[in-house]
Design brief:
Layout (H helix, E strand, L loop, with lengths): L1 H16 L7 E8 L1 H7 L4 E2 L12 E9 L16 H4 L5 H4 L11 H10 L8 H15 L1 H7 L8 E3 H12 L4 E6 L5 E10 L6 E2 L12 E3 L8 E2 L20
Parallel strand pairs: 2-9
Antiparallel strand pairs: 1-3, 1-6, 4-8, 5-6, 6-7
Length: 249
Amino acid sequence: MASRIALLCLLGLLVASSARPDSGIYYQIAFMWPGAYCEQTNAGCCMPTTGVVPARDFYISGFTVYNATTNAPKTRCSKTPFNLTEIIEIEGLKQYWSNIKCPSNNGQNSWKTAWKKTGACSGLEEKAYFEAALALRNRINPLARLVSKGIKPDFSLYSVKRIKKVIQAGIGATPVIQCSKGPFDKFQLYQIYICVADDGETFIDCPAAPKYTCSDEILFHPFEKWMLKEPKEGEPDETFELPSVAMDH
Ligand SMILES: *[C@@H]1O[C@H](CO)[C@@H](O)[C@H](O)[C@H]1NC(C)=O
Ligand SMILES: *[C@@H]1O[C@H](CO)[C@@H](O)[C@H](O)[C@H]1NC(C)=O
């Protein structure tokens, strides 16, 4: 048994060392469950002014570049200006990288912030950075994965272990679950973080996963379109950012 483990370790080292030269970074994609956000936020949540109804799904809330040596987020790398035209037509951007913060806004500030704060550290062009995030979302598809195993936003309680297991079984890496305080002071599913190697494709366990406080069983709050408040007539289209979701540790 021990020798088998030793052999597996050796194989692991060989596989790791045969990878292409290390760029020294990895990524972390964050998904926010809008049902939890709408519930926990005093101001509620608002329909974006993009003209596109957000998906009834998890939204990308961050796509952060990390320094693999220090496990610290790489931020503000260059002054590469943000160019909205480059990304505005990317399929799924307005549906899956939605900003539902109130008052209603056009989401542009969250994309601009993501690019300026960490995207420019990715080594990718602006369009490729956003496309990479959306492609990862499609592959991870957290809601569909959970629903297919009976874990639904139906106000029921679900085991955090099981939620992790379902995603782990699907993508081969363990997600980090962040909870927030929901109704009746119960912890609810709020955000899911998944780390990705520097190839932008291989899922990895987050090297410095923070421990968020959750109970063993957490509420999966429903999310319905009617929860998004429509913008009031004549309300200025102010732009707001979602709170930063970079992992703190
Ligand atoms: C990571 O951080 C270390 C220490 O600050 C630095 O020397 C190194 O260049 C950084 N690597 C990358 C890829 O940014
Ligand atoms: C922004 O991107 C568009 C589309 O690629 C390009 O035509 C335009 O010149 C860019 N604007 C600036 C200021 O770089």
